[in-house]
């Protein structure tokens, strides 16, 4: 039961990710990306990680993708004003893509398969356990990553500020 | 999973769904009556006694109108928009505890569809998803005014979500849980959270006005600037869905406010009533009290709409980013300090 649900949702994830790339209209791409993120939320629920699922839901689907959509709607990109690419650029693109896939396959072949991870506590993803882990053994990395985010935020605000004359 | 459990939940979901639709329907009537009262008019009084059948007449009119889909719109998304608005408005009710558990025979029936341990975050996620209905509809209409309105809605929602989340964090410091059921149980009798978090409540209610696009923050449908806003191009029941979703949103956010800050189904003297009224009627009286709180909030929403003029867009952003967010952060810090001091002594 669990495995078949996983394969079904995973197939949906792959399908919608492909639709992100193949849609001509950028707004449609973003909408497909939102659906892809929704399938990720379902994956988290299947892994019994409720908190991660809801946070993924709020942050990615509810905030970041709204901003993406916002920017794309403002730019109003569509097929008519998309610059036509020459054949040379297309051929170069195909060759570069093939090179990338060969490199990825080579590196995947070289790495060894790790042992399957077995959680000592299957309820690790529930809110209380996750909080105890994050603010206990993983306190320092957690705080450091929050400082990193803060730095990025301050940097973004600084970039948008006009220089004082 | 036994079959009675499924039937029980199915009945509960159906009842809640029907109640939210009926309340949304009669909110349109109530809104016009409240407006009439505040402006010293009569309001609708022709359809049925006191105009009670007015919402039915309006609904019928919506269904009978011609359905128009603009030629240059993206047709599929144009249809998805109102449906999404309606869906996100309705699913918020799933985690709200409508009353304490009823005991029938030896079976305990909780009056809550799902008690998940991240209940508040679920509500928050549904709220943040609500803007997609407006954005998709506005963009798919292929109309500049609709697009402007969709963009306004998006930036307004994102701005006020932050202050809303921060005010909830202060509340969580007090309650120590994210499960709505436990939060309500903690507020037994008159220990309502609004007494511990008055500032947090004020921030939350202002933000929920902005999130439901109600006046004075109804900039996405500002008639004087944007014709009809994001639903300019919509007609028939698609327009009806957008209007309806707004009232359901209002109902859900009233229920959330009553749950988080005003004790849900708790009221002073409830223990005495529970003992005397029995295990079925007792909890149902609590539910009635809960609905009275919700109706008070809905009335408050309408009262504000017909009292305060609409904000200008820069004033809206100014209030959100420079007023409410610093205030909410200050509220978190003060709450944290007070809790630390109380635990120390």
Automatic annotation (TrEMBL), chain A:
GO-annotated molecular function: NADH dehydrogenase (ubiquinone) activity; quinone binding
Protein name: NADH-quinone oxidoreductase subunit J
Enzyme Commission number(s) from the entry: 7.1.1.-
Superkingdom, natural source: Bacteria
Membrane-spanning segments: 6-23, 30-47, 53-75, 87-108, 138-159
Known catalytic reactions: a quinone + NADH + 5 H(+)(in) = a quinol + NAD(+) + 4 H(+)(out)
Coiled-coil positions: none
Naturally occurring in which organism (per UniProt): Pedobacter metabolipauper
Function description: NDH-1 shuttles electrons from NADH, via FMN and iron-sulfur (Fe-S) centers, to quinones in the respiratory chain. Couples the redox reaction to proton translocation (for every two electrons transferred, four hydrogen ions are translocated across the cytoplasmic membrane), and thus conserves the redox energy in a proton gradient.
Pfam families according to UniProt: Oxidored_q3
Family per similarity comment: Belongs to the complex I subunit 6 family.
Chief place of localization: membrane
Keywords: Cell membrane, Membrane, NAD, Quinone, Transmembrane, Transmembrane helix
GO cellular component, one term: plasma membrane
UniProt membrane topology term: Multi-pass membrane protein
Annotated compartments: Cell membrane
UniProtKB/TrEMBL annotation, chain B:
Catalytic activity of the protein: a quinone + NADH + 5 H(+)(in) = a quinol + NAD(+) + 4 H(+)(out)
Localization terms from the record: Cell membrane; Membrane
Pfam families xref list: NADHdh
Primary localization: membrane
Gene Ontology biological process: aerobic respiration
Enzyme class: translocase
PROSITE patterns, per database record: COMPLEX1_ND1_1, COMPLEX1_ND1_2
Transmembrane segments annotated in the record for this chain: 6-26, 76-99, 119-140, 160-178, 190-210, 241-264, 284-304, 324-342
GO MF annotation, one: oxidoreductase activity, acting on NAD(P)H, quinone or similar compound as acceptor
Protein EC: 7.1.1.-
Record's keyword terms, sorted: Cell membrane, Membrane, NAD, Quinone, Translocase, Transmembrane, Transmembrane helix, Ubiquinone
A GO term from the CC aspect: plasma membrane
Topology versus the membrane: Multi-pass membrane protein
Family the entry assigns: Belongs to the complex I subunit 1 family.
PANTHER family named among the record's database cross-references: NADH DEHYDROGENASE SUBUNIT 1, NADH-UBIQUINONE OXIDOREDUCTASE CHAIN 1
Known function: NDH-1 shuttles electrons from NADH, via FMN and iron-sulfur (Fe-S) centers, to quinones in the respiratory chain. The immediate electron acceptor for the enzyme in this species is believed to be ubiquinone. Couples the redox reaction to proton translocation (for every two electrons transferred, four hydrogen ions are translocated across the cytoplasmic membrane), and thus conserves the redox energy in a proton gradient. This subunit may bind ubiquinone.
Assembly and interaction partners: NDH-1 is composed of 14 different subunits. Subunits NuoA, H, J, K, L, M, N constitute the membrane sector of the complex.
Name of the molecule in the record: NADH-quinone oxidoreductase subunit H
Source organism (scientific name): Pedobacter metabolipauper
Gene: nuoH
């Amino acid at each position: 039961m669990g495995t078949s649900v996983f394969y079904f949702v995973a197939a949906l994830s792959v399908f919608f990710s492909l639709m992100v790339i193949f849609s001509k209209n950028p707004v449609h791409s973003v909408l497909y990306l939102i659906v892809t993120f929704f399938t990720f939320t379902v994956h988290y629920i299947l892994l019994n990680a409720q908190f991660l699922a809801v946070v993924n839901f709020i942050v990615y689907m509810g905030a970041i993708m709204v901003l993406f959509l916002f920017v794309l709607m403002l730019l109003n990109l569509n097929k008519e004003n998309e610059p036509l690419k020459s054949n040379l650029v297309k051929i170069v693109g195909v060759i570069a893509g093939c090179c990338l896939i060969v490199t990825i396959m080579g590196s995947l072949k070289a790495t060894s398969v790790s042992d399957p991870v077995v959680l000592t506590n299957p309820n690790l993803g529930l809110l209380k356990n996750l909080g105890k882990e994050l603010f206990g053994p993983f306190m320092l990395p957690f705080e450091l990553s929050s400082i990193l985010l803060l730095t990025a935020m301050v940097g973004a605000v600084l970039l948008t500020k006009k220089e004082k004359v | 999973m036994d079959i009675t459990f499924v039937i029980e939940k199915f009945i509960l979901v159906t009842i809640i769904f029907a109640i939210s639709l009926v309340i949304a329907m009669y909110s349109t009537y109530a809104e016009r009556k409240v407006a009439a009262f505040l402006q010293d008019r009569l309001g609708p009084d022709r359809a049925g006694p006191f105009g009670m059948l007015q919402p039915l007449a309006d609904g019928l009119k919506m269904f009978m109108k011609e359905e128009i889909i603009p030629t240059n719109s993206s047709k599929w998304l144009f249809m998805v928009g109102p449906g999404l608005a309606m869906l996100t408005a309705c699913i918020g009710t799933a985690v709200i505890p409508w009353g304490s558990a009823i005991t029938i025979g030896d079976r305990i029936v909780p009056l809550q569809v799902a008690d998940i341990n991240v209940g508040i975050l679920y509500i928050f996620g549904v709220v943040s998803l609500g803007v997609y209905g407006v954005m998709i509809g506005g963009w798919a209409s292929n109309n500049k005014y609709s697009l402007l309105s969709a963009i306004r809605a998006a930036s307004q929602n994102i701005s006020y979500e932050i202050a809303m989340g921060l005010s909830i964090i202060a509340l969580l410091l007090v309650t120590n849980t994210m499960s709505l059921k436990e939060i309500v149980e903690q507020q037994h009798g008159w220990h309502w959270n609004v007494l511990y978090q008055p500032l947090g409540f004020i921030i939350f209610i202002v933000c929920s006005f902005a999130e439901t696009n109600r006046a004075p923050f109804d900039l996405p449908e500002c008639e004087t600037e944007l014709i009809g806003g994001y639903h300019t191009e919509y007609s028939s029941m698609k327009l009806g869905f957008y209007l309806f979703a707004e009232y359901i949103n209002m109902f859900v956010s009233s229920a959330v406010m009553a749950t988080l800050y005003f004790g849900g189904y708790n009221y002073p003297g409830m223990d005495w009533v529970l003992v005397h009224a029995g295990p079925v009627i007792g909890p149902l009286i609590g539910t009635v009290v809960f609905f009275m709180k919700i109706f008070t909030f809905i009335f408050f929403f309408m009262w504000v709409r017909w009292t305060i003029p609409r904000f200008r867009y820069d004033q809206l952003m100014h209030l959100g980013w420079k007023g409410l967010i610093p205030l909410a952060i200050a509220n978190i810090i003060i709450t944290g300090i007070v809790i630390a001091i109380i635990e120390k002594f």
